[in-house]
Amino acid sequence: MTTAESVADRRRFLAPLALAQFICSFAGSNLNVMINDITHDLDTTVAGVQAAITLFLLVMAVLMIPCSKLTDRFGRTRCFTVGLVLYGIGALLSAVSPGLGILILGNSILEGVGTALLIPPVYILTTLHFSDLTSRARAFGVISGMGGIGAAAGPLIGGVITSAISWRAAFVFQALVVTAIVLLSRRIVDPLPADPDSRFDTPGAVLSGVGMFLVVLGILQADNDLALTAVLIVAGAAFVAWFFLHIRARERAGREVLLSLGLFRNRTSNLALVTQNIQWLLLMGTSFVVAVFLQTVRGYDAIETGVIFTAATLGVLVSSLAAERLAKRRRQRTLIIAGFVVTAAGIGVLLALVGASSRVVAFAPGLLLIGLGLGVMLTPSVNVVQSAFPDALQGEISGLSRSVSNLGSSFGTAIAGTILVSDLASGNGSYVAAMIVLGALAIVGLAAALRLPAGPAPQSTPAAADPLDAAIGAG
Fold first, then answer.
1. pLDDT per residue over 95-134, tens digit each?
2. Other C-beta atoms within 10 Å of 113: how many?
3. Which of 207, 259, 255, 258 is nearest to 235 (CA)?
4. Is 420:329 a contact under the CB 8 Å cutoff?
5. Of 51, 53, 280, 321, which is most buried by a Cβ count within 10 Å?
6. 30 CB-near residues (< 8 Å, 6+ apart)
7. What is the spatial distance between Cα 458 and Cα 50, in angstroms, rounded to a whole number?
8. What is the pTM of this model?
9. DSSP assignment of 283-298, as one string?
10. How far apart are CA 314 and CA 154, in angstroms?
């Protein structure tokens, strides 16, 4: 096979997988610029649409690890195709939804479940297809970059479609893209046979899912009842603790587990997962806060709001395209640190200019910096996590990595969105409060990045005398 044929084959393999990551990330942010149109059309509220967006992201986070394990049982390509079909059905159902309930069923539930089924195969198939770390890192860079571009471009594309046609047409657009992915992915072959006899840790899936759901639900209730928020978050934390105890007991008994606690023994991976979570929290949180503020407080329509996000899209695109070249010149740790510094600076610019000018263009410099910062560090964080483990654990760590990222997305919309929506009547006040919280979280991400080792991470192995103790100690 010639080099040209090899490059062409690589592109044909990556195209449907990268496009799948793009459309799933797009779905998480494009509703932000449709909020006014959806609330008027479906006779609902901003908080109602926020709940739909957050639930979509949360369903992905809750099911990402269980669905990653199901790929072993039913096969990677089969789960990928089933996920695409579910996603497409959900998009079409959302397009014809007569009320918020059907929108939640189509967008939040069906699209969320479909995404959780199709995303793990994207990363597992990529890991299995590219055997050497260099080509694998390049492939992850393409896929992660498309994910960042999808999230950043969601408001722009959604705004254009909403203004030109209708918010419902944006869901038809998603269905058309999914159809194209199905056609492009027909030649992808699963390199490993499915194992229908593999066992599935159902109690573990329930415990982890309930725990994460209660925590995010508690955050969403913060503007209504602080006592209920505290109860829900404590209950969620208790379920998560129960999940870890359950996993430890099953591992000691030699039984199949949903997620090996040995994955948490690697300090470098743990820190990189924190940076991943906060990166997506900042991306989705900023997207929601700025989009809602411009529409509900400043009175801009979908296209005006979407166009201003061109700055963020451009920033992510430029830095993502430069990611491979930057990785050859700078350490992964350096890129992640630089990304958080630039992102925090962008949030500072957004805060500084909100009161200085009422023009929408005043948001461009801050969004550009945020896009540049996030684009620089999205791929390095994934590479640090994936490279910290041998091939035998790539499937599990891929599921954990995607779950952590999607949980960050749901936290971003829930935390910053709840602060903003709690007092929209205050004008700039709630916007400033939400952005200050995001800025503080960017500092937390920077602190985690500074603790990353300068050199490459040592690879972890499945062996562990006491995984739970190791996981606690690694934090």
1. 999 999 999 999 999 999 999 999 888 888 887 787 766 6
2. 20
3. 207
4. no
5. 280
6. 154, 155, 157, 158, 170
7. 41
8. 0.81
9. HHHHHHHHHHIIIIIS
10. 12
